Amino acid sequence: MSKAVNEVEGEVVGGGRLRAFAKREIGRVLALGSLVVIFIFFTIMRPVFASWENVSGGILMSTTVIGLLAIGTTFVIITGGIDLSIGTATALVAIIVGKTVMALNLGVIGGMVVGLIVGGLIGVINGLLITLLKLPPFIATLATMKAAQGLALIISDLKPVLFTTDVKGWDSIAQGNLIPNVPNGVLILFVGAVIAAIILNKTVLGRYTFAIGSNEAATKLSGVKVNNWLVAIYGLGGLYIGMAAVVLTSRLGSARPDLGLGYELEAIAAVIIGGTSLLGGKGTISGTVIGALIMAVLVNGLRILELQQEWQYVITGIVIVLAVWGDNVRRRRAGEIS
Amino acid sequence: MTTTQLLSLTGVSKEFPGVKALNNVHFDLNKGEVHAIVGENGAGKSTLMKILSGIYKKDTGNIVYQGNNVNVSSPNEAQKLGISIIHQELNLMPDLTVAQNIFIGREDRRKGRVFLDDSKLNKAAKDLLAELELVLDPKQKVGELTIAKQQMVEIAKAVSYRGEVIIMDEPTSSLTPAETDALFKIIRTLKAAGKGVVYISHRLEELNKITDRITVLRDGEYVKTLNTPETSIPEVISLMVGREVNQDQRPEVRPLSNEVVLRVEGISDLNLLRDVSFDLRKGEILGFAGLMGAGRTELARSLIGADPKTAGKIYLNGKEVKIKSPSDAVKVGIGYLSEDRKKYGLLLIQNITFNVILSSIPAFSNRLGFLKTKPAGSIVRDAIKQLSIRTPSENQYVKNLSGGNQQKVVIAKWLTRDCNILIFDEPTRGIDVGAKDEIYRLLTKLASEGKSIIMISSELPEILRMSDRIAVMCEGKLTGIIDNKDADQNKIMQYATKFRD
Questions:
Q1: What is the DSSP string of B216-254?
Q2: Same domain, B32 and B127
Q3: Please, which contacts does B314-323 make with residues 24 or more away whose CB atoms are closer than 8 Å?
Q4: Hey, CA dihedral for B399, B346, B441, B301, is it positive or negative?
């Protein structure tokens, strides 16, 4: 019963629970199926692809930053909005974290807190631009995207901030192994995804995220303070930017002002491949994680096949078209859209 | 003067799924004549005009234009024939000039031409405007003109097609008296040039000034064509509203409480509302009648804080309350059910449960913000049973429900929130006849349980059937409040057409 309220469900007529589940979750089942098929394909081509070393160190680790950004921005996209600033904001947060950690002699925890605060603030600023100044999300976050890019370069003086070796344990934020054989970065991604799924499906904030994306006017007329919740939702997305920035510095061993631009489109692509609608009102965290994994598996597999990087971009483009077109065809057949 | 028939429609019918919009309607127009079409909202005026201008296709009937049987299959075809329409909402491009607007789509496109010849366009527009005695600069941007001048551009555009028939839909609805006089002058120029003008207006007192004949429609049926000099406004009104007796149902006499739950004092807004005041009593259904654009929806929206008020006070049970946003209104127990349920009432792509608890989510969550799903489920199932919402389960998507059941989901939302004042805006719009009765019974039941209801409706029989008292609005002002026992359709129409000028 509790499922009924938490999940967005269709009409379930007859059939077993499994069939009902498959029908309801067909979007994600198909996405997961494609992931498995792609995985098997690369494994057959090059068995080394399926080694745990490649899966954890290659595929999963390379998903962490984009994955965290995609998870945070899933909330924004379900409201019907978009956040273009997450890429350059990641660079800005990384630079500020590096400078602050050096200036104040902060440790790992202190650095993480700074990252979350700055990331959250950037999200809140986006939310305020959208609600107070009534800018369309595309415009508001395009502006913060450019501003963050510039600020990252200004604050860093165009140079990477080399701070990680001075902080004990900073490199193990992403690369340590709290659980044997599982890099901490992967653990952070997993925990981040679980927390996001709980917030999206079990809390008031998650429920309003879906409500605003389904019909903002009706939600407002139902007495919901839509503007306040939108600021909170963009702020939540900002926390994931903060975490992604911290993980990125740990992986790279520095904070680089030029790295981050373009991450926003990769994250948005992951969200879309995962079946979240750009029109708002529909989406899942697990879909987003699957979407991010599909992109990481493709990049990794094509690299193992020694295909040039240029071709990886082309194939990523084709996958986005196939994923969204396939989902449209399925929904049209199911009568969900016309 | 011998009259020459320009246009004649006979036996025109048009059916939409579930509605007979026009049934065997006649209409004719002579050269140099202004012929008005009048009727209540939903009488079929705009359907008839849309058939004439090629937007809709008629099901049956004949259209004879200048002696030939014609088939107006598209707006383009209508224009080619020489039938132009000026819609109530003007269709001009504000960033283009007067001349560019008049000749849009008819720029010189001979082969080999790449650039537009604006000076030629301006010259043609200047000649046309001079011919119509209109004082307009062809090079001025339309967005800089007043509404009245924009309307003149529309008229010039209509004339530029060199058509014989010009249809004007509510041309004076946003004009001042002086501007209206200017418009009438242009219409007289058109008349003198032998054009035929079809004139649609809610402002009956204008008919005497400008029209030659008046055709009355009611409920999609042709009622009568009158010669303007031989008739009077009361006659026109009674022809407009005269319905069969069995539709004149009235509410059962209920004991009315004198307890005022809501007192509204002097509400005005930026555009339309002027100093609206009324009381709403406990357990009462207060009907709001008026023509389209009278300001009833605007009143509801500013009451609940969805649109800003420029003046006015609201008292709830004697205490003043500040309502600045819909969330303030919901907090004090006022729920609004929009006329456009799909746009303003429902989350169509979500299920019934989600929609029913939408206003009460804080009540279904703990202090940490986690949702309590069990009580929500049982409350929603109770609501489905109580309001007899026909659905396989509470998990059905709302978009799969019928209009009547969707309306009940919105009602369930406000009942779950425990709202004591409900504002229904056109509660039965888009709902089929059988389900209408069910909604009526539900409204009566809610009122007898002590809820206070404001019911906005454009259907006079519905107003008379449901309301204990009837408030009538015209042009943003409240022109009267009538007890049901003293009210009839004529009286309501009189208040509804009490225009300023």
A1: EEETTEEEEEEEGGG--HHHHHHHHH---GGG---PPP-
A2: no
A3: B314/B262, B314/B263, B314/B264, B314/B265, B314/B267, B315/B262, B315/B263, B315/B264, B315/B265, B316/B261, B316/B262, B317/B260, B317/B261, B318/B260, B318/B263
A4: negative
Q: Distance between CA B362 and CA A203 in Å, rounded?
A: 10
Gap from A231 CA to chain B (nearest CA, Å)? 16
B271 & B298 share domain: yes
Residues 6+ apart with CB under 8 A from B250: B464, B465, B484
Confidence tier at A12 by pLDDT (50, 70, 90): very low
DSSP-assigned letter for residue B271: S
The confidence band for B34, taking pLDDT boundaries of 50, 70 and 90, is very high
Asked if residue B227 and residue B279 are part of one domain, the reply reads no
| Contact state of B395 with A225 under an 8 Å Cβ cutoff | no
* B4, B49: one domain: yes
Is B343 part of any domain? Answer: yes
> Are B40 and B151 members of one domain?
no
Domain extent, residue B234, equals 1-82+163-176+188-244
User: Quick one: B413 and B280 in the same domain?
Assistant: yes
Q: Which residue of B has its CA nearest to A222?
A: B359
B371 contacts in chain A (CB < 8 Å): 5-6, 202-204, 207
Question: Is 0.95 surpassed by the pTM of this model?
Answer: no
The whole-angstrom separation of Cα B438 and Cα B445 is 10
pLDDT in tens, B296-332: 999 999 999 999 999 999 999 999 999 999 999 999 9
Query: Which pLDDT value is given to residue B260?
Result: 95
In angstroms, the separation between the Cα of residue B339 and the nearest Cα of chain A is 12
Asked if the structure places residue B105 within a domain, the reply is yes
Please give the average per-residue pLDDT across A309-335, as a whole number. 81
Q: Do B322 and B393 lie in a common domain? A: yes
Q: List the domains of chain A with CATH numbers.
A: 28-325 (1.10.3470)
Give percent of chain B above pLDDT 90.
50
How close does chain B come to A21, measured CA to CA in Å? 14
Q: Based on the fold, state whether residues B149 and B170 are members of the same structural domain.
A: no
- CB contact (8 A) between residue B354 and residue A207: yes
Rounded to whole angstroms, how far apart are CA atoms A7 and A201? 7
